[in-house]
Amino acid sequence: MKLSEIIEKINAEVVYLKEDCDILHGCTGDLLSMVMKNAKSDSIWITVQNHVNIIAVASMVGIKAIVLCEGLEYSPDTIEKAKEEGISLLKSNESSFVVSGKIYSLGII
Q1: Closest alpha carbon to 63 in 53, 71, 72, 74
Q2: What's the rounded Cα separation, in Å, for the pair 109 and 104?
Q3: Angle at 81 between CA 65 and CA 109, to 5 degrees
Q4: I need a surface site. Which of 17, 22, 36, 70 has the fewest CB within 10 A?
Q5: Do residues 51 and 75 lie in contact, with contact meaning Cβ atoms separated by under 8 Å?
Q6: 3-state SS, residue 7
Q7: Closest by CA position to 108, among listed 49, 56, 40
Q8: What pLDDT, in 10s, does the model give residues 63-95?
Q9: Which letter, b or e, does each residue of 15-38 get, where b requires 16 or more Cβ atoms within 10 Å of its Cβ?
């Protein structure tokens, strides 16, 4: 599914969009080592972590987009690093549980 479709269907706010791309998998988690272990490339990552290290993890794994939940804000250095690495950043006021459920219902696993 295209990232643009996911953004529309989950009503996410775009903080930075590198480009529209295909999202094949999803991953929910806040422990960076677990995300490194379990996430697949071409994924969307749902989390409440907002610090710059999430961009390094996403880049290493091949994650295309991150959804920051609970109405939290990305730090300016996280946004700058996302632009450098080409990782799209989204936000939602909903919980990780709700956002994950919405993305799962779209057929992203």
Answers
A1: 53
A2: 6
A3: 15
A4: 22
A5: yes
A6: helix
A7: 40
A8: 999 999 999 999 999 999 999 999 999 999 999
A9: bbeeeebebebbbbbeebeebeee
Q: Which two tokens stand for residue 86?
A: 């080409």
Identify whether the C-beta of residue 22 lies closer than 8 Å to the C-beta of residue 2. yes
Q: Are 58 and 81 in contact (CB under 8 A)?
A: no
Cα–Cα dist 87/101, whole Å: 22
How long, in residues, is the chain?
109
Report DSSP letters for 13-47, one per residue: EEEE-----B--EEEE-S-HHHHHHH--TTEEEEE
Q: What is the CA radius of gyration of the chain?
A: 12
Give dist(CA 34, CA 104) in Å, integer: 19
Q: Decide: 89 and 4 in contact? Cβ < 8 Å.
A: no
